[in-house]
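Record now logged for everyone:
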Amino acid sequence: MPRYELDGQVAIVTGAGRGIGRATALRLAREGASVIVADINEANAKGVVEEIESTTGIAHPVTVDVTIKSDTERMVSETVAAFGKLDILVNNAGIAIIASLMDTDEAAWDTLMNVNARGVLFCSQAAARQMIAQGNGGRIINNASGAGKVAPGKRTPLGAYAASKHAVVALTKQFGLELSPHEILVNCVCPGIVDTPMWDLIDREIAQLEGAPVGSVKARAVAGIPVGRIQQPEDVANLIAYLASSDASYTTAQALNVSGGMLPY
């Protein structure tokens, strides 16, 4: 039985083709929501839809580039065409580029900011306009990462990524305030070291820079997690499901940690 009652709700999850987005789409579908599986990779999106439908869930794939405003608007239009409304948006699409701040060039900076920050802005605008028109409130939940709160550290060259994720926290707080008169609640989640393809990339590239074995960077990071294990995508999806539920009806403009005790505030 579901922990949270989301029957009749309609959700969009961006970056839902793998990792945290996939786990979130599966979890919201299991809770009873009809889910738009949105991803820039069409094959990945369709694969997750097939997973959801195989367990009697309801889902529909949408190919979207969150950096293009018209694409995000089309995503919302396709959601309404498929399911009649929109109740929940999960802004999960994101990328990482490994480089120290001194080595971060214009292209890397712009790519990170376009996907991780501008994408949240455009998707949230499009979703909020639909929710306002419906007049029944809604939820916007952003994936801000632990890097949205703390600097990654001198041995983890993810400074520009962290800057983009700090922007997500700021967007969350301001959208939460601006949209509160419409009963649209906006929050973000801040995960730690999650066992996803993104962290595999981080591990490989930093290991190469250090001349260290593949796997050693991730192992070093996991060793610092107080609860003693690497985070699974489902751990993040659990918090997102809570924020989408009626149990979180008095929570907005917040950045909630789900990091196994790693984040200090």
Notes: The two ends are 33 Å apart (CA to CA). The mean pLDDT is 96. The chain has one domain: 10-194+232-258. Residues 10-194+232-258 form a domain with the Rossmann fold fold (CATH 3.40.50.720).
